Amino acid sequence: MRCVSAPLRWHDLPTGDPQGLRERIEAGPNSIWRYAPLLPVPADVASKPNLNPGLTPLVKAHRLAGELGVTGGLYVKDDSGNPTHSFKDRVVAIAVEAARAFGFTTLSCSSTGNLAGAVGAAARAGFRSCVFIPHDLEAGKVVMAAVYGGELVAVEGTYDDVNRFCSELIGDSLGEGWGFVNVNLRPYYGEGSKTLAYEICEQLGWEIPDQIVIPIASGSQLTKIDKGLKELIKLGLVEDKPCKIFGAQAEGCSPVSRAFKDGHDVVRPVKPNTIAKSLAIGNPADGPYVLDIARRTGGAVEDVTDEQVVDAIKLLARTEGIFAETAGGVTVGVTKKLIETGQLDPARTTVVLNTGDGLKTLDAVAPTTGPTATIKPSLDAFRAAGLAG
Ligand SMILES: *Cc1c(COP(=O)(O)O)cnc(C)c1O
Q1: What is the mean pLDDT of residues 33-42?
Q2: Tell me: the pLDDT tens digits for 199-234?
Q3: Is 221's C-beta closer than 6 angstroms to any atom of ligand 1?
Q4: CATH tag, 58-84+194-368
Q5: 186 pLDDT higher than 90
Q6: CB-ligand 1 contact for 354 (6 Å cutoff)
Q7: Could you give the count of Cα atoms lying within 13 Å of 223 in the half-sphere of its Cβ?
Q8: What are the sequence ranges of the domains in the chain?
Q9: Are 58-84+194-368 and 86-189 the same fold in CATH?
Q10: 3-class SS letters over 101-166
Q11: Does residue 380 carry a pLDDT above 60?
């Protein structure tokens, strides 16, 4: 299997005319391709039939803000509406363009679930797909990874075992045509996460928020959102201003949060045990960079228990009508905890990411959610249930 080097650009970053660039972006497609001039993709990418993730809603969360005591403006960037219902469609879309340009024929990945679904769906752009997941994922993630018709390999082990196994495969027995979106295509994959920063700022009227709460699995998304903000400033698309970046983990897989609290620069790997399976990476590749960004921006890395994750999923659903997957429960739960512990300023503009759809992690809330009453189809039974008032 071949390696590819750092991101190629097919064109130079447009400099010198921020107003012109803003207008060009605003007139572009309603997807990440409106930012094509800022991405390592061919200039004509937006005109091809393609995967069209992005430009997901930035929801002004009045009711959630009320419950959490946020007065400075609270927004949920809701990525559950992407084509395969997680933010992973963004990163895959860029990796696929690179795979095409490099002549790869098989798309692959090691995945905690959502990536496998996004890669499976992306293969319709003309690739074979063969993806690898841990054997104990949620049913919704497994079905979604399989339904697009590609090959799905469930490996007996954790994500970290799957990842290590894939590295061995890559070093040994694979043909030239294999492109692992999060291994040899990782430089491109990562660039897809920048579009979250671009969209958040554009949707706030080309302004950087004061605080962003981001989930951490490998930490790639968090580091690339930081990179995206810096690029917008450099290009003059937004005014320079400080933005505190907060990372969110589940307690059962919180190696980065642990290192942050202990004041360490390196992350000690853990064996994950949490319902937030999409974030269950015990040895996160970008952990040290996340620590650096959280400290440099004045943010923090925090974690919440599985019980708090479930409570937060329900809180977001009840207040905003957004049904988040466990990763969204992690960010909302951590936001609550950051406010309670005085680490996040409720008087400042805050954006919380929901990176996936609750329908994929029904198992997490099913045990504590169900019918208020189960009755016979009779008026008496309904009255007896005490719900008629
Ligand atoms: C993959 C994933 C993330 C973040 O992943 P990183 O590896 O940190 O970039 C966040 N939320 C969901 C739902 C995911 O699937």
Answers
A1: 91
A2: 999 999 999 999 999 999 999 999 999 999 999 999
A3: yes
A4: 3.40.50.1100
A5: yes
A6: no
A7: 17
A8: 58-84+194-368, 86-189
A9: yes
A10: HHCCCEEEEECCCHHHHHHHHHHHHCCEEEEEEECCCCHHHHHHHHHCCCEEEEECCCHHHHHHHH
A11: yes
Structure token digits, residue 313: 């999923």
What is the structure's pLDDT at 45?
74
Half-sphere exposure of 293 (CA within 13 A, CB side): 29
Q: What is the DSSP letter of 13?
A: P
The torsion region of residue 103 among left (phi > 0), alpha (psi -120 to 50) and beta comes to left
Asked if residue 163 has its Cβ within 6 Å of ligand 1, the reply is no
- H runs (alpha helix) in the chain: 18-26, 62-68, 88-102, 114-122, 139-147, 159-172, 186-203, 220-234, 255-262, 287-297, 306-320, 326-340, 362-365, 379-384
Position 273, amino acid: N
- For 213, left (φ over 0), alpha (ψ -120 to 50), or beta? beta
For the domain 86-189, what is the CATH code? 3.40.50.1100
User: Which atom from ligand 1 is nearest to the alpha carbon of 114?
Assistant: 15
Query: For the purposes of burial, counting CB atoms within 10 Å of the CB of 19, is it exposed (0-12), middle (13-18) or buried (19 or more)?
Result: exposed
Query: 18-26 vs 186-203: helix axis angle to the nearest 10?
Result: 90
Output the CA 278–ligand 1 centroid distance in Å. 6
Q: Does 358 contact ligand 1 (Cβ within 6 A)?
A: no
pLDDT given at position 174: 82
Sign of CA dihedral 224, 307, 351, 294: negative
Using the predicted structure, report yes or no on whether residue 69 has a pLDDT greater than 90.
Answer: yes
- 111 close to ligand 1 (CB < 6 Angstrom): no
Ligand 1 within 6 A of CB of 274: no
d(CA 327, CA 204): 23
Is pLDDT above 90 for 12?
no
Q: For tokens 């302004």, what's the residue?
A: 207
| Residue 235 near residue 21, CB atoms below 8 Å | yes
Of all protein residues, whose CA lies closest to atom 4 belonging to ligand 1?
Answer: 217
